[in-house]
Design goal:
This protein is 31% helix and 21% strand. A hairpin with a 5-residue loop joins β6 and β7. The protein has 7 helices and 10 strands. It has a 5-stranded mixed sheet with strand order 5-4-3-6-7, with helices on one face. The protein has a 3-stranded antiparallel sheet with strand order 8-10-9, with no helix packed on it. The longest helix has 19 residues. It has 2 domains: 159 residues, Glutaredoxin; 56 residues, no CATH class. The protein has 237 residues and is α+β, with helices and mostly antiparallel strands.
Length: 237
């Protein structure tokens, strides 16, 4: 029984405040999430420095950092390696690695040192069924109020889809800004879903153009939301 209890993974949930911590990073000390109040944050973990999948991911995140920043989103990485390992690995990436046209990539966002696994355990990043000494590929989207809005987990062997991570961020912000929901595979410019169910108005209203919606049935209504309107609202110029 005691052995089974030790295997229980404690992890925050969507809608919870992001667990607070202070940590040393490659960009100095941080107080999380207080230092990022008013901004979106993607907090993500990787299994280990000097590993190929993680290297490809860090190069991609670093190459997209400006794109995330324009959407008022900061990046914060974590692994259970030490600070000097982080620094040496990031220097190697910049000096030696060229991948998919990316080269001379400098990682400027903070990478947390978490040798004690304190932060990784707070966020449920250590999954004993996968590994007891490495963090899985966890991704936490945290909003400007410090609340967890989305959680995505990947196993050690599977690299993340960064187009999807960016899509999730824009979709979350669009839902907040316009009071809508987004359907499957939504991207800016696609129709959005009008909540709550039953809000479509009458058929007469729609025929007279009083409702800018299309209703497939009483529970499923969409409306157009211009791509430029979405991006002009969300992205910093």
């Amino acid at each position: 029984m005691e052995e089974n209890q030790e295997q229980v993974v404690s992890m925050p949930r969507i809608g919870d405040p992001a667990p607070a911590f202070k940590a040393v990073t490659t960009q100095g000390e941080i107080n999380f999430p207080a230092d990022y109040k008013g901004q979106w944050v993607i907090l993500f973990s990787h299994p280990a420095d000097f590993t190929p999948v993680c290297t490809s991911e860090f190069m991609t995140f670093a190459s997209m950092e400006k794109q995330f920043d324009q959407a008022n989103c900061k990046l914060v990485g974590l692994s259970v390696d030490g600070l000097y390992s982080h620094i040496a690995w990031l220097r190697t990436i910049k000096d030696k690695i060229e991948y998919k046209g990316m080269k001379d990539v400098e990682v400027k966002f903070p990478l947390i040192e978490d040798i004690t696994m304190e932060v990784a355990k707070k966020y449920g990043m250590i999954q004993p069924g996968e590994a007891t000494t490495k963090a899985v590929r966890a991704v936490f989207f945290i909003d400007p109020k410090g609340m967890i809005r989305t959680i995505i987990y990947y196993p050690l062997s599977l690299g993340r889809n960064f187009d999807e991570l960016y899509r999730v961020l824009i979709a979350l912000q669009t839902a907040d800004e316009f009071g809508i929901a987004t359907p499957a595979d939504w991207r800016p410019g696609d129709d959005v879903i009008v909540p709550p169910a039953g809000s479509c108005g009458t058929a007469k209203d729609r025929m007279e153009g009083k409702e800018d919606m299309h209703c497939y049935d009483w529970f499923f209504c969409t409306k157009k939301l211009d791509k430029e309107k979405v991006l002009d609202t969300i992205l910093k110029k």
